[in-house]
């Protein structure tokens, strides 16, 4: 898929909460093997929201960072999309909370999207469409989550939190474009690998079924179809970022697709912060933008349960150099950390029911 | 808090918007009907800076209604880079590590929830500068 | 303007009066004041109260009490200025008499904090602050004052021990006050080891929660002289305000409203701070005592600790502070505390303070604060 008008990233920004809980802390409560999570799934610890944080607050800080880098007024935004599966209200858009907090209101479109872990890249597709058709000047795509894993479930070890905002503009009209979109491909089927019914606190999943029929089929399909459409191959890319429910899946998928380990390392964040769900692959992408050089080509493929994958190819422009230092990097947020024990984690994540 | 009361003050609490006296340049937060310093009624819109340092703080251990499960939390007076002083919560720091004079920056955070069916209230808090 | 006197007064003990309602409590105090003198009529009732609306579901207090006391159809209304309601009501009564409009005005106040339960009472008391820009952030009345205390300790290198010593003095004084809520001695360690409410304010830095009522009858000075020998003249009285939220104060560590009210009252009474023999000051928290003593002019800024440790606030010192035990130990039934203070000073100057009596007290001062310093009411009385 290619928009009629060339579209670029005008700014980018992320936010990761400062608290962490190590897999050992969770394992000792439930008598599980921390070694399994560290060595096999490659998760050391995950990010935990403070008591005063939720998807709105994460999205706002990521959005403000993206605005700082884009060097535009928030009033120039024509759309804000927030993709999440843990938005604070079931009915009331996070998009308007963010729009008001960053002073973008009232002349814009705002909406929340849900597609499990790929709602962030979907927001990017929507912004690309609106900007690329000339309907709006700039759009903000946000993927952010504070997803919960049920106590004692495998997902409790990996469900982290955080988010990224990508500010999209028309390349010709953007001062110092950061990266140009070459094309994207979306691949979706009705594959119920992971879901949450409305009145349930925690999601359910089909265990091993989330692997081959879900994550791998969709990620590999969207990637191969994008390569075919754009006549690209893995070696054309400097960096590749895949969705990271754990470390094992993206490494395996990357290998299968023909990417080398060094191509995916910069964007592989799950060992230190866990799975950011809708924020996962786009925060990996943000980490790559924090270090990429003009001329680099970046591959991004998300995966969302239910299921689907969006694949993108970007080439980095000169404008990235002027904009990089205008906001904190992903590495800065990862470095800012304080480990908590299971009691404090339970308090912050409101798992204490008396 | 009632919805209209919360909604009405969003620009002040979420974006630190206030006003500056056209006559003497004094800034009040929250804004007043007449300038506290010179009594003038002529103002221009003004947004407070998002950086400052901590002037005083307290660690709330016995909390008012709605904040009981958040203790201990830190309330502070921040002296912003333009000299204005405001009362806010201080976040992302262990209460035992808070010191008068520490440099801070503004962040958008949740203040509280009105039970599990009411609205969620947000505002600016300050955290140790990154 | 006529000169005004306090003709009589009545107080209840400050306590948790579970068995007495708002009207019964004020009624008890008012009847003491009314029965001790013979007057034709109560022309007006101007009464202070802060929390009845929240805790007792009762507005329209003036009419409620006028009804209960059988003084209808005289006019009656409530004055509310947070914990300065008592002092403000007395100022209202003073102006009513001084203006010539009313001769016998029943005033004072009543408070039933125990009608609320824990969280409700604290929440109601918090409403003295700025609801939108202080309460909204999860502040309580304690935490607002804790911000002031922490800054004071930082600026003037004053330790918690100093503040604890003031609480100890208050309790010592209260042992002589039959109306006090906490008439027992405590030690410095009791204060220092008590639970932190909002650092650095601990439980024993705070006034207790209690109920009470104090009533006073005010009338023209000339008339008072014909009725009783126990009258006391109001020689100076003033109210003043400051910003409601503490972060907008020009100086966090100065109660501008106390400075302003005291200045006016001193000028009106033609006295200065050095002429005051006895004072009932507003020590909601030990930090409030420090600022009050300094801002009333009894010592320089930052010198409260020195004044306290040298005995300057006790008999034989510079001025006897809170012989009643103050808010800390006599108690603080918020909306009526100011009335207790004025009644206690009147009692001192009339020579009727019994074990609490300050010898040779000629001029006395009551200082009542509303909120965290957003208002102050200063009343100066003189022995005839």
Describe the structure.
The complex is a heterotrimer of chains A (354), B (130) and C (384). Helix content of chain A is 33%, strand content 24%. Chain A is globular, with a radius of gyration of 19 Å. Chain A has two domains: 7-177 and 322-335, 3-Layer(aba) Sandwich (Peroxisomal Thiolase, Chain A, domain 1), CATH 3.40.47; 182-321, Peroxisomal Thiolase, Chain A, domain 1 (3-Layer(aba) Sandwich). In chain A, the strands form three sheets. In chain A, strands 5-4-6-7-1-8-13-12-11 form a nine-stranded mixed β-sheet, sandwiched between helices. Chain A is built from 13 helices and 14 strands. With 354 residues, chain A is an alpha/beta fold. Chain B has two domains: 1-47; 49-130, OB fold (Dihydrolipoamide Acetyltransferase, E2P) (Beta Barrel). Chain B contains two helices and eight strands, in the order H-H-E-E-E-E-E-E-E-E. Chain B has helices at residues 3-8, 10-15, and strands at residues 17-21, 27-28, 43-47, 51-60, 73-80, 85-90, 103-113, 120-128. A five-stranded antiparallel β-sheet of chain B has the order 6-5-4-7-8. In chain B, strands 2-1-3 form a three-stranded antiparallel β-sheet. Chain B starts with a helix and ends with a strand. Chain C has 384 residues and is an alpha/beta fold. Chain C has a domain at 4-118 and 210-227: Thiolase/Chalcone synthase (Peroxisomal Thiolase, Chain A, domain 1, 3-Layer(aba) Sandwich). In chain C, 36% of the residues lie in helices and 19% in strands. Chain C has 14 helices and twelve strands. In chain C, the strands form two sheets. In chain C, strands 3-2-4-7-1-8-12-11-9-10 form a ten-stranded mixed β-sheet, sandwiched between helices. Chain C has a two-stranded antiparallel ribbon with strand order 5-6. In chain C, strand 11 (363-370) and strand 12 (375-382) form a beta hairpin. The model of chain C has no long low-confidence stretch (mean pLDDT 97). The interface between B and C is large, with 38 and 37 residues.
């Amino acid at each position: 898929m290619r928009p009629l008008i060339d579209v670029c990233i005008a700014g980018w920004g992320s936010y990761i909460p400062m608290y962490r809980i190590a897999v050992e802390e969770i394992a000792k409560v439930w008598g599980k093997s921390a070694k399994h999570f560290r060595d096999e799934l490659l998760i050391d610890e995950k990010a935990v929201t403070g008591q005063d944080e939720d998807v709105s607050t994460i999205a706002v800080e990521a959005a403000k960072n993206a605005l700082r880098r884009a060097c535009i007024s928030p009033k120039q935004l024509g759309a804000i999309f927030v993709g999440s599966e843990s938005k604070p209200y079931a009915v009331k858009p996070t998009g308007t909370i963010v729009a008001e907090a960053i002073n973008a209101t009232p002349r814009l479109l705002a909406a929340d999207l849900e597609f499990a872990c790929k709602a962030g890249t979907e927001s990017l597709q929507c912004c690309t469409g609106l900007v690329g058709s000339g309907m709006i000047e700039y759009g903000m795509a946000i993927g952010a989550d504070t997803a919960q894993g049920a106590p004692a479930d495998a997902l409790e070890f990996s469900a982290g939190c955080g988010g990224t905002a990508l500010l999209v503009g028309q390349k010709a009209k953007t001062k110092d474009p950061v990266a140009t979109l070459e094309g994207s491909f979306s691949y979706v089927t009705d594959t119920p690998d992971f879901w949450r019914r409305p009145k349930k606190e925690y999601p359910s999943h089909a265990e091993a079924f989330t692997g081959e029929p879900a994550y791998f089929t969709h990620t590999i399909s969207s990637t191969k179809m994008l390569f075919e459409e754009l006549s690209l191959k893995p070696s054309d890319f400097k960096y590749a970022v895949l969705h990271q429910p754990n470390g094992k899946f993206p490494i395996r998928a990357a290998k299968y697709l023909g990417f080398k380990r060094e191509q995916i390392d910069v964007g592989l964040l799950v060992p230190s912060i866990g799975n950011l769900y809708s924020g996962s692959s786009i925060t990996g992408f943000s980490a790559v933008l924090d270090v990429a050089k003009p001329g680099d080509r970046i591959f991004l493929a998300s995966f969302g349960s239910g299921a689907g994958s969006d694949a993108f190819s970007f080439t980095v422009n000169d404008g990235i150099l002027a904009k990089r230092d205008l906001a904190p990097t992903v590495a800065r947020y990862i470095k800012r950390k304080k480990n908590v024990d299971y009691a404090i984690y339970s308090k912050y994540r409101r798992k204490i029911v008396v | 808090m009632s919805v209209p009361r919360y909604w009405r003050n969003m620009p002040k609490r979420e974006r630190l918007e206030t006003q500056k006296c056209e006559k003497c340049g004094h800034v009040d937060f929250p804004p007043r009907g007449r300038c506290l310093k010179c009594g003038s009624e002529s103002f221009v819109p003004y947004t407070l800076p998002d950086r400052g340092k901590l002037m005083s703080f307290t660690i709330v251990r016995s909390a008012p209604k709605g904040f009981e499960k958040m203790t201990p939390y830190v309330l502070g007076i921040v002296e912003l880079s333009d000299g204005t002083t405001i009362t806010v919560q201080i976040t992302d720091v262990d209460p035992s590590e808070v010191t008068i004079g520490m440099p801070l920056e503004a962040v958008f955070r949740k203040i509280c929830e009105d039970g599990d069916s009411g609205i969620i209230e947000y505002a600016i808090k300050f955290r140790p500068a990154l | 303007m006529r000169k005004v006197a306090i003709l009589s007064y009545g107080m209840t003990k400050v306590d948790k009066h579970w068995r007495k309602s708002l009207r019964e409590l004020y009624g008890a105090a008012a009847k003491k004041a009314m029965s001790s003198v013979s007057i034709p009529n109560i022309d007006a009732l101007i009464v202070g109260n802060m929390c009845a609306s929240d805790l007792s579901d009762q507005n329209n207090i003036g009419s409620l009490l006028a009804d209960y006391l059988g003084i209808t159809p005289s006019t009656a209304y409530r004055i509310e200025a947070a914990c300065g309601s008592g002092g403000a009501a007395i100022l209202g009564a003073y102006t009513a008499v001084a203006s010539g409009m009313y001769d016998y005005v029943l005033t004072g106040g009543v408070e039933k904090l125990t009608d609320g339960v824990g969280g409700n009472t604290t929440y109601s008391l918090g409403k003295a602050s700025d609801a939108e820009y202080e309460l909204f952030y999860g502040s309580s009345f304690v935490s607002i004052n804790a911000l002031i205390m922490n800054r004071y300790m930082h600026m003037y290198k004053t330790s918690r021990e100093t503040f604890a010593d003031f609480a100890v003095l208050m309790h010592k004084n209260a042992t002589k006050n039959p109306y006090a809520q906490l008439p027992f001695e405590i030690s410095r360690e009791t204060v220092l080891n008590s639970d932190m409410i909002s650092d650095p304010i601990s439980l024993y830095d705070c006034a207790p929660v209690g109920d009470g009522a104090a009533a006073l009858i005010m009338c023209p000075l000339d008339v008072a002289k014909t009725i009783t020998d126990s009258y006391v003249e109001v020689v100076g009285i003033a109210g003043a305000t400051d910003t409601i939220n503490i972060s907008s104060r020009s100086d966090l560590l100065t109660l501008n409203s106390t400075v302003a009210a005291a200045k006016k009252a001193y000028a009106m009474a033609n006295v200065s701070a050095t002429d005051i023999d006895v004072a009932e000051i507003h020590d909601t928290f030990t930090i409030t005592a420090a600022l009050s003593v300094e801002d009333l002019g009894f010592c320089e800024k930052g010198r409260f600790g020195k004044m306290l440790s040298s005995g300057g606030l006790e008999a034989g010192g510079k001025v006897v502070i809170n012989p009643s035990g103050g808010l800390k130990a006599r108690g603080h039934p918020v909306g009526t505390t100011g009335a207790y203070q004025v009644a206690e000073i009147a009692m001192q100057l009339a020579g009727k303070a019994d074990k609490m009596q300050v010898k040779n007290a000629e001029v006395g001062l009551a200082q009542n604060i509303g909120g965290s310093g957003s208002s102050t009411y200063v009343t100066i009385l003189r022995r005839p």
